[in-house]
Input
Amino acid sequence: MTIAAYIVVAIALSITDMLLFRRCAEHSPVRLTSGIIIAFSVALLQTLLYLAGMAMGDILRLESTSDANLYSQPNAYITLGLFIIVIIKLLVPYMRREPQLPLFNLNNTKAIIAMAIATGINMLIIGIGMGFASPMAGHFHISAWPLLGLTFLFGYFGIMLGRQKVTIRPIRWIIVACILLLGTAIATIANN
Output
């Protein structure tokens, strides 16, 4: 996988964080100084779950001792399947007539940890898919730093939008995120 694929996945996952933080900050506003700590803590925990998923995918990846590329196509299809699971999980709540999207109280530490773990499940699944697509060795830094940085920035931006009650079109944003994820998975198949 190229660094561009890791950055595109990081952007897609960051968009989902922005939407969540915007909703939560509108419901329970926090000071911007507290928002920095909250956004960084959630981004760090999500990145750790993503890296744990990558490590699991790297362990579970199909490999052959005789030919390194023998199972690259089946691994790419497994990646596509895992990405589609996450895409469906992201899209379905927004496609209901009256969406019931999750809200977390940003003034409660336990709620913030629960939010990080609940949203980190998607990142864990995406990480497993990325681990199937490419080995973790040599890709640790190019996968971890863009995700950590972008989820922190987008999350903090979401807090700022929520505090000001700025209206955005969440369905459009989530569709963009899902298209980015799907495009990355299809590119993985095309490159193998």
Q: What stands out?
A: The chain has a mean pLDDT of 90. The helical segments are 3-27, 32-60, 72-91, 109-133, 140-163, 170-191. The chain has six helices and no strands. Residues 56 and 183 are 23 Å apart (CA to CA).
